[in-house]
Amino acid sequence: MQIEVVKSKIHRVQCTGADLNYIGSITIDEDLMDAAGIIRGEKVQIVNNNNGERLETYAIPGPRNSGEITLNGAAARKVAVGDVLILITYAWMPVEEAKVFQPRLVFPDEATNLLK
User: Fold this and answer.
1) Model pTM?
2) Is 62 marked within a binding site?
3) By residue range, what is the domain housing residue 12?
4) Mind telling me which residue stretches traverse the membrane in this protein (predicted)?
5) What CATH number does the domain containing 12 carry?
6) Ligand-binding site membership of 17 (annotated)
């Protein structure tokens, strides 16, 4: 049997942009993606602490050391610039592996979204 567990989390970043006319996805500072082990195109769950919205999309890298967190396409309607977000990825693995697996947890500076 396999179960789905948290693979990584970027905790409490501010939304820096919402681009309704972009094709879709979430743009994430590539430094944050690397720190969390998130790859281009990976499914990401976004939890909006300000309004309770939860949605899923895929990650695309943004400029390094920019702090960019931009929701694109229809997802842009679910956030406002400045909203506090939690970004989560998941992975499937055997139960025994899941028992010892350690997810990557990233806690950026809440004012800048940059790694501390």
Assistant:
1) 0.96
2) no
3) 2-94
4) none
5) 2.40.40.20
6) no
